[in-house]
Specification:
Helix content of chain C: 40-55%
Shape of chain B: globular
Chains: A mainly alpha (307), B mainly alpha (285), C alpha/beta (481)
Largest sheet of chain C: 8 strands, mixed
Distance between the termini of chain B: 20 Å
Radius of gyration of chain B: 24 Å
Shape of chain C: globular
CATH class of the largest domain in chain B: Mainly Alpha
Helix content of chain B: over 70%
Largest sheet of chain B: 2 strands, antiparallel
Structural class of chain C: alpha/beta
CATH superfamily of the largest domain in chain B: MetI-like
CATH topology of the largest domain in chain B: MetI-like fold
Number of helices of chain B: 14
Structural class of chain B: mainly alpha
CATH class of the largest domain in chain C: Alpha Beta
CATH architecture of the largest domain in chain B: Orthogonal Bundle
Oligomer: heterotrimer
Number of domains of chain C: 3
Number of strands of chain C: 12
CATH architecture of the largest domain in chain C: 3-Layer(aba) Sandwich
Number of helices of chain C: 23
Largest interface: A-B, 107 and 102 residues
Chain lengths: 307, 285, 481
């Protein structure tokens, strides 16, 4: 309709076909990324090989053996379980906390704006270094957090060093680093919501809980989905915090995908197994992101339809 | 929102105070440690009172670290410069590539557009380790190993999808009618893009750029594996204070403070855009 | 160079002026401290130049990959002398220890020709050697045309030198006749006791002489020193680094091994014997009673930091970790003492497992002869003496340095018991692991098992049986068992 009008009314001169333009615009971005596809495919090939850098003579295709061995390997199932658990816990907690904080800061004021930027500081600290600092702060002797915990009666709280509290501790650090990311996205969402529905609800005396669940949350869903998507897919690949805090221990408590793959690659130089682990992780993230994006697009279409 | 009871205001205040304490306490503690040496940092139990020293910052900035074994050269300022350079150029390149693409996806529903968009996004989720070994091999062959260009290229994996996804949403939510009107008036496509679409999407672009900047800034595995010591970012540089003659907590803290500062300054400067820009446009209704 | 400066330096070399006096003196003459380091060794360099064509590779440049370490610092301080001696140029990349080996693996696995030589640990060469990343250095060491006559290969401590040589056969004996010299030892660490003398005196305990005594002493220290101080610092992180220091040294003292090698060269796990189980029980008990509370996250720098800050009363770890904690701005600087440790009452002498920082030559180097010029200088007797006496290059790997009175005096002055400890334990010092390509897999799992035992998630006996079973499975799968 309008587009056709434009075509006809265009002044003379150099014309780019309407059909080609979008491809031209997105091509450079795609080309830059496609370069990564080649190493990616190489890794897929590795994952079908028996390939240890320290035993080059034994390198050969073993086809699915790397993958098949996972099925009977309790360590792999432990890795899968703990990765999903970690991602699940961190994302849910960060989402709740992030939403809560965003609602506290929703009102536009200089103080609120300032606080929201200050709260971004954990996100600006490189996770590996942040973990190093948390490790010091939770040291039983020198650690200020251990000291504070002992003041409230937790004399023997072992933080990351005990299997029963290690997950809790790394989750805590993850929350500290990444909740601000969710907070800032949701804050942006909250502040951009149209005011009419809320004013109408207030006039009608609708209960606050009803407003929250029936108006705020649904309107906020696209933001929640975006935040969850980025966070979930990062969290399931968490490495820096876990490795710096516990190296996957104690025992096999925190041997998430990236930690296992890192150890397999850089220490054992077992490239085949490391690649297979990463491919499975990639498949999981691909699957999850597909679900999220489908929903996201549907929601947006619906929102557009209403508008 | 206006008619809040006193009790609610108090409760909100308390909640906000708790939030600020939880997120800011470690930062404040790190800031305090950056003015101390191990002698006062490592006390049992930890104490608040200390005599502040600028020694850590002096060592980092002058590049001379005095130890028992003599004076050591450290390259922290070089690391800081590398971080600034890599993050800024990577984000700039990502904006240059990503914004037009985002516009294309938002404005022109073309064959395979969703698939291409998703493919681009999915690179964000490829585990870095997966591509690292083959990448070093290919970089070696292409002569990209140990070059800033190579690094900036790889950093696109972090920056580009984030920018694309956020800016695209922003473009989509800007009513297309404004642009049509401008084009009907006889302006070219490019002029419309430059004069209308870009300014309208400004906050979105700024916010996406800032987030991409933060993620690029925090990365270290790419530079570590693909480049030599003179191209390493602060994240690698700060680890140099874990030395054989002990871990220098004061200097690591000072390094963290110095490495947060540029990003924080940027965020404060772009404060206005940040929150507004992440709202994905959202000029509905 | 001016006469005055030369005189001052010669006076220093004769021992008439101390280091501070020298640097102060040179500073007064307008020389910076860094230049002073170079001049220091100028005398030795002049002596080195005789009888060998050091200038054969003049004008060439080689590049090194170095770990941020006092050894590297000492080398860099003396590097100008090498440049003068050979007319070569040397550039280097220094990476933090935390990420150093990741960088090495990345560079070598990509067959990068960027680095000609690099620092490594001997264990790592069990990966790098078979992978074809590094060169057998015998070709150069044994060639009089390429190695200067004063190099004195026999001067290297035999246990250390042999620990860097392996024939590449999984389970092969280190230093066997057919072994390849994958790296040249540079500096090494024995695992012994460093203790806080004041705390020992306060509680009235003496240095433990065997494992039983160590468990008891550590427990008493934990109980009686007070102020949150614990008895013994050992590493506990989920890594090979937990196994190789004190733990393996004591384990080996009870004649226990990591792996059995059968007559036909097959490997199998050796840690489920009765003696091994008894030892593991003692070790685990010691950590539970008197180790650091967050032991399972502990790596070398935490073990060291605690000792240096007075949070622990002793460590059973690398001697040089204690050495560094006895200096610098550590609270306990000057208050630490050293002792050799023999875990098994029935054993004749200590058997410390060792960590060896060494130099390897990259197989992808474009000029190996030139690279060897650097390596023979850096591992030569002159630089070793310079590093040991003027810098913190401990422990030197050459007997001649240990015989040097100036070096012994320097240690005796500030590091009580160090020389004696060395003399007692050095004859038994070597790598106690079985060289094989799965080294990192097996030791990481071993550490994880220890963590489970200390956390009481699994009883010691059962844990070791499971560990042995798992290791045997992995060895079989890799075609080694």
């Amino acid at each position: 309709m309008t587009a056709a009008t434009i075509q006809r009314n265009r002044p003379s001169g150099f014309r780019i076909s309407k059909r080609v333009l979008p491809y031209l615009l997105s091509l450079p971005a795609l080309l830059v990324c496609i370069g990564i596809l080649i190493p990616f495919l190489t890794s897929v090939v590795y994952s079908f090989q028996r390939y240890r850098l320290s035993q080059p003579w034994a390198r050969q295709f073993n086809w699915g053996d790397n993958y098949i061995s996972f099925f009977t390997d309790p360590k792999f199932w432990n890795t899968l379980e703990i990765s999903l658990l970690y991602a699940g816990i961190t994302v849910v907690l960060e989402l709740l906390l992030g939403l809560g904080i965003a609602m506290l800061l929703q009102k536009r004021s200089t103080l609120n704006n300032f606080i929201s930027i200050m709260l971004l500081m954990p996100l600006m600290t490189a996770p590996a270094l942040a973990a190093l600092m948390w490790k010091l702060m939770t040291n039983p002797g020198f650690g200020v957090l251990s000291y504070l915990a002992s003041l409230i009666g937790l004399q023997d709280f072992r933080w990351a060093s005990s299997p029963s509290t290690a997950l809790l501790t790394v989750v805590l650090v993850d929350i500290w680093v990444y909740t601000p990311f969710i907070m800032i996205l949701l804050l942006a969402g909250l502040r951009s919501l149209p005011t009419q529905p809320f004013e109408a609800a207030a006039l009608d005396g609708v209960p606050r809980s009803f407003v929250f669940f029936r108006i705020t949350l649904p309107m906020l869903t696209p933001y929640i989905l975006t935040a969850t998507l980025f966070r979930l897919l990062d969290s399931i690949q968490q490495f820096d915090i876990i490795y710096a805090m516990t190296q996957g221990g104690p025992g096999d408590t925190l041997t998430v995908f990236q930690v296992e793959a890192y150890l397999n690659f850089f220490q054992s130089t077992n490239v085949g197994r490391s690649a297979a682990l990463m491919i499975i992780l990639w498949a999981i993230t691909y699957f999850l992101s597909n679900i999220f994006i489908k929903n996201w697009l549907r929601l947006r279409e619906r929102a557009r339809g209403h508008a | 929102m206006e008619h809040t009871s006193l009790l609610e205001r108090i409760l909100r205040g308390i909640a906000l105070a708790l939030v600020v304490i939880f997120f800011m306490f470690p930062i404040v503690w790190i800031l305090m440690m950056s003015f101390q040496t191990n002698e006062t940092i490592l006390r049992i139990p930890p104490q608040l009172v200390f005599e502040p020293t600028l020694a850590n910052y002096t060592a980092l900035i002058t590049g001379k670290l005095m130890t028992a074994a003599g004076t050591l050269d450290i390259a922290f300022m070089r690391n800081l410069w590398n971080s600034v350079f890599l993050s800024v150029t990577s984000v700039a390149v990502a904006l240059l590539l990503g914004v037009p693409a985002a516009y294309a996806f938002a404005r022109h529903k073309f064959r395979g557009s969703e698939d291409i968009a998703f493919t681009l996004l999915s690179f964000r989720f490829a585990p870095a380790l997966l591509v690292l070994l083959p990448l070093t091999l290919y970089f070696q062959k292409l002569g990209l190993a140990n070059t800033y260009i190579g690094l900036i290229w790889v950093y696109q994996l972090i920056c580009l999808p984030l920018i694309l996804w956020i800016v695209r949403g922003y473009f989509e939510d800007i009513p297309a009618d404004i642009e049509y009107a401008y084009r009907i008036a006889g302006h070219s496509w490019f002029a419309t893009f430059r004069k209308i679409a870009l300014p309208l999407a400004g906050p979105g672009i700024a916010a996406a750029g800032l987030l991409a900047f933060i993620f690029a800034w925090n990365n270290f595995v790419f530079a570590l594996v693909l480049a030599s010591a003179d191209k390493q970012p602060v994240t690698v540089g700060a680890l140099a204070f874990i030395t054989s003659s002990g871990i220098q907590y004061g200097q690591i803290s000072a390094a963290i403070v110095l490495s947060i500062t540029p990003t924080l300054a940027l965020a404060l400067y772009a404060q206005r855009y940040l929150v507004e820009g992440l709202s994905l446009g959202a000029v509905k209704g | 160079m001016h006469e005055k400066e030369k005189d001052l330096i010669d006076a220093f070399l004769r021992g008439q002026v101390d280091r501070r006096g020298l640097i102060k003196g040179l500073g007064a003459m307008g020389l910076a401290a860094s230049t002073a380091g170079t001049l220091l060794n100028f005398g030795q360099t002049r002596a080195l130049a005789a009888d060998f064509d050091w200038q054969a590779h003049k004008g060439k440049t080689i590049k090194l990959l170095l770990n941020k370490h006092p050894y590297a610092d000492a080398m860099i301080a003396n590097l100008d002398n090498f440049k003068q001696l050979t007319g070569m140029n040397v550039v280097y990349d220094v990476f933090p220890e935390d990420v150093y080996f990741d960088k090495v693996t990345a560079a070598l696995s990509a067959s990068s020709p960027e680095y000609d030589a690099f620092m490594t640990g001997a264990y790592m060469t069990w990966t790098y050697g078979p992978a074809g990343w590094i060169t057998d250095l015998n070709e150069w060491i044994k060639d009089p045309a390429k190695t200067n006559p004063k190099y004195a290969w026999d001067d290297f401590l035999p246990g250390v030198r042999k620990s860097c040589a392996w024939n590449g056969q999984p389970g092969g004996v280190l230093g066997s006749d057919d072994a390849k010299q994958w790296c040249i030892p540079w500096g090494f660490e024995q695992n012994n006791i460093t203790y806080n003398k004041g705390m020992f005196d306060k509680v009235g305990v003496s240095v433990p002489g065997n494992m039983d005594e160590m468990v008891a002493t550590a427990a008493k220290l934990t109980k009686d020193v007070g102020g949150g101080v614990y008895g013994i610092g050992v590493r506990g992180s989920r890594s090979w680094a937990t196994i190789h220091p004190g733990f393996l040294s004591a384990y080996a003292n009870f004649d226990q091994k990591d792996l059995n090698v059968s007559a036909d060269g097959k490997l199998s796990a050796a840690m489920s014997t009765a003696e091994s189980k008894a030892f593991h029980k003692q070790w685990v008990q010691m950590i539970q009673e008197s180790g650091p509370k967050d032991w399972s996250t502990y790596t070398w720098y935490q073990v060291g930091t605690d000792l240096g800050a007075g949070a622990s009363a002793m460590i059973y770890d690398a001697d040089i970790l204690g050495y560094f904690m006895n200096g610098g701005d550590n609270k306990m600087a000057g208050k630490l003492a050293f002792a050799a440790f023999k875990a098994n009452p029935a054993a004749k002498a200590p058997t410390p497992n060792i960590w060896i920082w060494s130099l390897s030559m990259s197989n992808f180097s474009k000029d190996k002869d030139a690279t060897w010029y650097f390596m023979q200088w850096a591992s030569g007797p002159e630089h070793a003496l310079f590093g040991a006496t003027k810098m913190d290059f401990v422990n030197p790997v050459r007997q001649s340095v240990w015989n040097d009175q100036m070096f012994r005096d320097k240690l005796n002055k500030s590091y009580p018991g160090y020389v004696e400890m060395f003399d007692v334990s050095a004859p038994g010092a070597s790598i106690k692991f079985t060289p094989q390509p799965l080294f990192f897999d097996l030791t990481t799992e071993w550490a994880a098992t220890l963590q489970k035992m200390v956390a009481k998630e699994v009883p010691v006996d059962e844990g070791l049986d499971k560990l042995a079973e798992s290791i045997n499975g992995q060895l079989k799968e890799a075609g080694l068992g």
